[in-house]
Amino acid sequence: AIAKSLRIFVFMVLSNCISRKVAIVNILSPFRIPLNRVHPGYRTLNPLRGWGEPAEPSRLGTPSTGDKPIFVPLSKFLNVQYFGKIGLGTPPQNFSVVFDTGSSNLWVPSKRCHFLSLPCWFHHRFDPKASSSFRPNGTKFAIQYGTGRLSGILSEDKLTIGEIKGAPVIFGEALWEPSLVFTFAHFDGILGLGFPSLAVGGVQPPLDALVAQGLLDKPVFSFYLNRDSEGADGGELVLGGSDPTHYIPPLTFVPVTVPAFWQIHMEGVKVGTGLTVCAQGCAAILDTGTSLITGPSEEIQALNVAIGGFPLLAGQYLIQCSKIPSLPAVSFLLGGVWFNLTAQDYVIQIAQGGIRLCMSGFQGLDMPPPAGPLWILGDVFLGTYVSVFDRGHVNGSARVGLARARSRETGGKGMNPRRRGSAADTLARRMRADR
């Protein structure tokens, strides 16, 4: 009976969210977007699909921005998914969005949504009649998520993000959303930061629009996801650069191998000094819209067994909370550098209604060719390492930079990644207070 209750509880927890981040660059001004966190889950990675081609964007006026760095807070929930605030229209209608490196479109719920689309009634909705700068487009779009298809129409209006005001963008008004996932989500929509090749219908992604309008010199951005156990601060998205105070140098840059998702080559994964998976190298993507770390189910099963996990449901594994201090580190070899996660990093601790659960941050997800097989390094990984996404490096090739995030709980101290061939650091050196 207890086991059944735990399964039901975890299912309800996972249903609350969507399934499925400094090189000194020449920028006009770095724009800071503070983040919040939302609940864990996973997303099935699917290429975005839509109908038709959008019309050319109308002239919506001249965007403006201040000279000071832009700061918009990121919210957080259970340290595993993060979102921030944007505005659409004139005057701006405010929305909470997930800044998602695994997609390339911006969408929010529409006031014109289908009556039976439950998520629409629990979130902020865009009202075109309330915006003096709205321009109709009308092209249909659809985005396929693991839990169902989201569909709607494309529209044009002005984007406000931090101190950037009046940037014309094409975005989606969602008329139908998959009910279970989006109804109880802590965010309204999604702002994609992937490559243009992922954009539905050839729509110009928001980041590209800001660059084209001269608000950003180059398409570079970075994520600091604050995973400290206390405080509402979820971290920060910086458009146009990164904040060196958030990480421990140096940054390790890894080239992007497939410019659609932020896909890179991963050279190996090991558990402590024992199990090794991805031994011959494998593909991996860095995805801020995915909460966990996913990989081929056979390898993830072996990894979870090696860290003492036992299966629960839907590829999820439970961990005995009392064993967290003795669990081995899990290390990822990227660009010749071992990036280590301690149990405090990769175990998700949930306390609700007097029940405390500890879930593994690793989940099996088999991606068929041609996209797969691949690993997805989601927020469990990106919450431990600051990530710099650079689409416009000097030689024309995209790259991702990674460096250990500074912990606010430990006064800025952290564990540096180790060079290839060194043993993984022990958990004791990285244990943080379990508050």
Automatic annotation (TrEMBL):
Keyword Disulfide bond: yes
Top-level taxonomic group: Eukaryota
Signal peptide region: none
The entry's keywords: Aspartyl protease, Disulfide bond, Glycoprotein, Hydrolase, Protease, Secreted, Signal, Zymogen
Organism the protein comes from: Ictidomys tridecemlineatus (Thirteen-lined ground squirrel)
Domain Peptidase A1: 82-403
Record InterPro entries: Aspartic_peptidase_A1, Aspartic_peptidase_AS, PEPTIDASE_A1, Peptidase_aspartic_dom_sf
Residues forming the catalytic site: D100, D287
Subcellular location: Secreted
Function: May be involved in processing of pneumocyte surfactant precursors.
Family classification: Belongs to the peptidase A1 family.
A Pfam family it matches: Asp
Protein name: Napsin-A
Record GO biological process: membrane protein proteolysis; surfactant homeostasis
S-S pairs: C113-C120, C278-C282
PROSITE patterns: ASP_PROTEASE (PS00141), PEPTIDASE_A1 (PS51767)
GO molecular function: aspartic-type endopeptidase activity
Region feature (Disordered): 406-435
GO cellular component: alveolar lamellar body; extracellular space; lysosome
